[in-house]
Amino acid sequence: MKNKRAGDADEEVNAGDETAPKRRKPQVLMRQGLFLRHFVKTGTVLGACIRAKIGRETVRQWRKNDPEFAKRFDDCELDVTETLESRAVSQAMGGDTTLLIFLLKARRPKTYRDNIKIEHGGGITIKHLLLGLGKPDAEEKKEE
């Protein structure tokens, strides 16, 4: 026996069987597919939502409540990331020095990261730090 939940226009649910997979309506599958195609083309959720005429909250709910959609979304997001990476590498190889630096830092952070070394010489008076007074004055040093 199938039962629709109040306010649940996008999917049918098997009543009484918590382990049964939820069946998605063909319209929902079509809308999800349309969104994902636009997502891969535009590279952004907002761009895909605008082109597919789907609200961002709808996409959030699909990702939250539909494991199959969430997996497909993740796969598409990986495709977008790899496309961006490929273009960045091409531009860097073509002479974009700034992009080249960023890519090297990302791929070999131990070798190309910004190295900052901070050293402290001298002591720290805890009393002054706790009171927010900074360095002790010369007169206070004589007292201690």
Task: Supply the key terms.
62% helix, 6% strand, disordered N terminus, 3 strands, 144 residues, three-stranded antiparallel sheet, mainly alpha, elongated
Secondary-structure element sequence? EEEHHHHHHHH
Characterize the largest beta sheet: strand count, sense, and whether it forms a barrel. 3 strands, antiparallel
Main-sheet strand order equals 1-2-3
Rough outline? elongated
* Overall average pLDDT: 80
Please state the structural category.
Answer: mainly alpha
C-alpha termini separation: 85 Å
How many helices? The count is: 8
Are there runs of 5+ residues with pLDDT below 50, and where? 1-20
Number of strands: 3
Whole-number radius of gyration? Answer: 28 Å
Summarize the structure.
The chain is mainly alpha-helical. The protein contains 8 helices and 3 strands.
Structural commentary:
The protein has 144 residues and is mostly helical. It has eight helices and three strands.
What's the topology here?
Layout (H helix, E strand, L loop, with lengths): L1 E2 L7 E4 L8 E2 L1 H17 L2 H8 L3 H10 L1 H27 L3 H11 L1 H4 L13 H6 L6 H6 L1
Antiparallel strand pairs: 1-2, 2-3
